[in-house]
Amino acid sequence: MILILILALPLAAAALCWLAHLDRLAPRVTVATALAVLALALVVASRVVAGGRIVAIESAIAVDGLSALILLLIAFVGTTAAVFSWGYMARMSHAPQRLRLYYANYNLFLFSMLAIPVLLEPTFVWIVVELTTLSPAMLVGFENTRTALEAAWKYVVLSLMGAAVALLGFLLLFSAMQAAGGGTYTWDGLVSVAPRMPPVLLQTAFLLILVGFGTKAGLVPLHTWLPDAHSQAPSPVCALLSGIETTAVLYVILRLLFVMKGVPGLDTELWTVTFGLISVGAAAFLLVQVRDYKRMFAYSTVEHMGIILMAAGLASPAGHYAAMNQILSHTLTKSFCFYAAGAALLATGSREIAAVHGLIRSAPAAGVSLLLGGLAIAGAPPFAVFLSEFSMCSTASGRPAGFMWCCARHWPSRGFPASARGCTPPTGMNGRWRTCSSSSSRVTRA
Amino acid sequence: MDSSGLYPLLDSLNTLVSGLFLLCAFGIVATRQMRGCLLWFITQSVLLAASAFLLGIRHQSWHLQAVGVVNLIAKPIIIPWILRRTLHAEIYARREIDQVLNIPTSLLIALGLVVLGYFLTQPLLQAVAAEFRGVNVPIGFAVLLLGAYTLTARREAVPLLIGVLAMENGAFFAGIAISRELPFIVELAIASDGLILVFVMGVLTRAIQQRIGSTEVGALATLKEEAAL
């Protein structure tokens, strides 16, 4: 019952924002709904920790430990983004009718994300993931500039392309279940029937869904939409997209990994570690070239999705725990980074890294937040991301895949000078940092 | 006609429908005019419904008949209606002036993709029961690849939208042959999801048209990294 309420509230809020002609109510309704959903999600999480699963509709809507974690994170980021939207969107001077559309789409987006961990049938999960592409389409292009619309178009087309590929994968999974003699088409049902399913169908389904939903999660080489969409959208939407939406899609791939365990001829560890490594490496190289601090955070999302996929693929309880740790720390840190970026954008009016020069004097809160956020997401101690990655490294070092992983972990530290470059201007320590920074010429020109 | 004569007839008809389905995908890759692209898609959707009906009779599955009905209503009728409401009529009169590759090259690549799809799906067919092997899976997969190719080769908004819809058609065409008892509610939800997709992309295309003055989304390529100095 509580799960159905969690899903119904954002839908009701979306309808209210869409239909009612009370423009000033829309942000209040959104924040109130998000807070209510967060409270309910906390109740769900505490019940799951105490007692195991919670079932609302048998074989359709239920929550276990993994789902409860994702649900709670979605609710939390949804609430913080709603609160941030209230002030941020008001400062950005949009027409009241457009703001009402923003909040209606926001609530629809929140609904579609909340449904991902709660639904049990994989094809329904596919439908809801499609909705998470379609509902923020207008949000990504909200600024209505040429670049924003370009980002929105790329986002929608590439995500839908991935979803179509994944659709075939899910249909193959269904037919594999029928070939094995039937059963309930839920995640748990698939896990129990998996040993009897024809391996070639499972292998093909796994690859199709990994490629298809990997596009949506931002795995290289299908990530090209992510830096654009996650930088052009308004900052609270970026926090939702980067912080939790890509993670929610990765959750679907993680569920699939449980189904694929032990399938002959399919080494899921190899595929996930390979895709993860490529993502981490490519993001690290691409990140050094960016001039836009929101794009930098977006590339960092690509990197972290690769890290989470690798950790989850390491196929050991410690690896799974490390992946969950990484999901938690990344979600909280990345959403904070985008709020800091939003504040910096309001203070400076520009997305350029060079433009935040001296921010710590002109807008101290924004400057300090941006500095701390950048350090945290780059993996500096003592922040959570550092702790989770350190535990991942120590978990992985006993395995051949882990050795590759530890080597790869050194690559993103090249991204750290980039984030430091972004952070150095705000510190205002002009002389010393300029000579040290590799982009010093760009900083002095700004 | 008894079943010993009916089943081969149904299989032959299904093969014909599948061939025409593939032809429609080639049409979507190659047609320059927007209206022509949309017509190829409508034809393709009708053929998908026809295949669903034929397979439904063949395997005595009312699920597939229902799939056919839903597809027949949603794709050839409702989707063009939504597009007419969200896009300006003059967008349909446009022709795409240039594509990434010229049309003969595109068609050759499309042919190569069909052959590739055929070979990639052979191992799948071995795993499925004998009476469900047929042309649906290779052709559905080939249309999926052709749709993806359309997304890379075309530069105008409407053909790109049609390409996405064609990919879903292809995935479904393969799916109806091997996953027959998909619950009806799932089929309905996928169909309505397709309608929302068209609506959202239509609204986005209109916003691009209003902001930029054309729907040539291939020209929107300003967001990229510059080489580090």
Topology of helices and strands:
The complex is a heterodimer of chains A (446) and B (229).
Chain A: H1 2-19, H2 25-51, E1 54-57, E2 61-63, H3 65-91, H4 96-118, H5 122-134, H6 137-140, H7 146-179, H8 187-193, H9 199-217, H10 225-232, H11 235-259, H12 268-287, H13 293-313, H14 317-348, H15 359-362, H16 364-378, H17 384-396, H18 400-410, H19 415-427, H20 430-436, H21 440-445
Chain B: H1 3-30, H2 34-58, H3 62-86, H4 103-127, H5 136-153, H6 157-178, H7 184-212
Helix pairs in contact in B: 1-2, 1-5, 2-3, 2-6, 3-7, 4-5, 5-6, 6-7
Describe it.
The complex is a heterodimer of chains A (446) and B (229). Chain A has 446 residues and is mostly helical. Chain A contains 21 helices and 2 strands. The longest helix of chain A has 34 residues, at 146-179. In chain B, 75% of the residues lie in helices and 0% in strands. In chain B, helix 1 (3-30) packs parallel to helix 5, helix 3 (62-86) packs parallel to helix 7 (184-212) and helix 5 (136-153) runs antiparallel to helix 6 (157-178). At the A-B interface, helix 5, helix 7, helix 9 and helix 10 of A face helix 4, helix 5, helix 6 and helix 7 of B.
Strand content of chain B: under 5%
The number of helical runs of chain B is 7
Q: What is the multimeric organization of the chains shown? A: heterodimer
Q: Give the low-confidence spans of chain A.
A: 411-446
Strand order of the largest sheet of chain A: 1-2
Helix content, binned percent of chain B: over 70%
Mean pLDDT of chain A: 84
Structural class of chain B: mainly alpha
Query: Globular, elongated, flat, extended or rod-shaped: what is the shape of chain B?
Result: globular
Number of helices of chain A: 21
Mean pLDDT of chain B: 85
